[in-house]
């Protein structure tokens, strides 16, 4: 039995968060039912949160089922050899109505030792930002464990961290160990390693509807943090109908692709491709069949699907390994 090749899209996995809002519905028409929906996991094989295919031949199947049957055809041979039947990346949309916690993610080594997990290298593409919105990324100047702990205890942590104003189209790359927080009034597309390991160090002293504060992971974070400045912002070209490099790291490559008209894509890398639609609408044609997509859609192109065309007026993020 061989894999039926076509672009795969998935049912969103919606997550309520204390800091979430309703923009995932108003901007992307995601089927949220809560006023505090913070995340839509678009493509995931995190245990307990595995994406389900929403249309076509494999509608209703979990991605993990398909990967167990056709790992090389979906992932690509080299990725299958490295990751087995695990999908190595996680794709999300995030709506921060309020500030997220100040947090850090461990590297592969620490995550493997403590949690038997991948680390969490990630990138953000800002899709929408309210006036005055900002993020927190890294320290203003080189710090130390002692200085960090003193400021954490005195509730002056923000005074030693770097706040960066953001606007639509900004791209940030966050290596593991970078202390960070997404600020209020921002919607982002997030691309990251398949991991749900977050060490929360400060949560603005807020409590939930029952008066409970969320768990902090101050001790775990100490060995994970890089006590240094971070150069997270990435500049990139925006040439039409071209894959403009935005982020390249050992875990993923992300290109910015402004589509205006029709282009042919030849999947020369031995890798799956993912397209996240940031703006507009487009059509994908493959072997005489056409599929239509719009802003907020995330599409997985199996590695075995080699040559196709994209047509429309849209802004896409193109991701592969």
Describe the protein in words:
There is one protein chain. Strand 15 and strand 16 (about 255-265) form a beta hairpin. The longest helix has 9 residues, at about 145-155. The chain has 2 domains: about 15-235, Jelly Rolls; about 245-320, Jelly Rolls, CATH 2.60.120.10. It is mainly β and about 325 residues long. The chain contains 7 helices and 20 strands. It has a 7-stranded antiparallel β-sheet, with no helix packed on it.
Fold blueprint:
Layout: E1 13-21, H1 23-26, E2 37-43, E3 45-46, E4 49-50, H2 63-69, H3 71-75, H4 77-83, E5 89-96, E6 102-104, H5 108-115, E7 122-129, E8 134-139, H6 145-153, E9 161-165, E10 171-174, E11 180-182, E12 186-193, E13 199-202, H7 218-222, E14 233-234, E15 244-248, E16 253-266, E17 273-286, E18 289-294, E19 298-301, E20 307-320
Antiparallel strand pairs: 1-2, 2-5, 3-4, 5-12, 6-13, 7-10, 7-12, 8-9, 8-11, 10-14, 15-16, 16-20, 17-18, 17-19, 17-20
Radius of gyration: 20 Å
CATH superfamily of the largest domain: Jelly Rolls
Give the overall silhouette. Answer: globular
Poorly predicted spans: none
- CATH class (first level) name of the largest domain: Mainly Beta
What is the CA-CA span between the terminal residues? Answer: 26 Å
Helix content: 10-25%
Structural category: mainly beta
> Order of helices and strands, N to C?
EHEEEHHHEEHEEHEEEEEHEEEEEEE
Largest sheet: spatial strand order: 1-2-5-12-7-10-14
Mean pLDDT: 97
Instruction: Count every beta strand, where a strand is a DSSP E run of 2 or more residues.
Output: 20
- What's the CATH architecture of the largest domain? Sandwich
The description of the largest β-sheet is:
7 strands, antiparallel
């Amino acid at each position: 039995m061989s894999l039926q090749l076509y672009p795969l899209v998935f049912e969103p996995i919606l997550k309520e968060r204390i800091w979430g809002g309703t923009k995932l519905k108003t901007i992307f028409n995601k089927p949220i039912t809560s006023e505090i929906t913070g995340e839509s996991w678009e493509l995931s094989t995190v245990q307990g949160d595995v994406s389900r295919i929403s249309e076509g031949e494999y509608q209703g199947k979990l991605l993990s089922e398909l990967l167990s049957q056709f790992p090389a055809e979906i992932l690509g041979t080299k990725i299958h050899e490295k990751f087995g039947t695990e999908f190595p990346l996680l794709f999300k949309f995030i709506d921060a109505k309020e500030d997220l916690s100040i947090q850090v993610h461990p590297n592969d080594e620490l995550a493997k030792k403590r949690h038997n997990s991948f680390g969490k290298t990630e990138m953000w593409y800002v899709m929408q930002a309210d006036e005055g919105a900002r993020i927190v990324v890294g320290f203003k100047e080189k710090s130390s464990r002692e200085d960090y702990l003193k400021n954490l205890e005195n509730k002056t942590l923000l005074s030693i961290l770097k706040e960066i104003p953001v606007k639509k189209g900004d791209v940030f790359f966050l290596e593991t160990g970078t202390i960070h927080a997404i600020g209020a009034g921002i919607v982002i597309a997030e691309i990251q390693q398949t991991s749900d390991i977050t060490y929360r160090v400060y949560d603005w002293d807020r409590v939930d509807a029952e008066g409970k504060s969320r768990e902090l992971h101050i001790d775990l974070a100490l060995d994970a943090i890089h006590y240094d400045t971070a150069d997270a912002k990435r500049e990139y070209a925006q040439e039409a109908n071209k894959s403009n490099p935005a982020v390249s790291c050992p875990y993923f490559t992300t290109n910015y692709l402004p589509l205006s008209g029709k282009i042919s894509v030849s999947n020369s890398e031995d890798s799956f491709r993912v397209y996240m639609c940031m703006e507009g609408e487009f059509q994908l044609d493959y072997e005489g069949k056409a599929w239509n997509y719009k802003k907020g859609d995330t599409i997985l192109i199996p590695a075995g699907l080699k040559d196709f065309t994209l047509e429309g007026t849209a802004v896409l993020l193109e991701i592969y390994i």
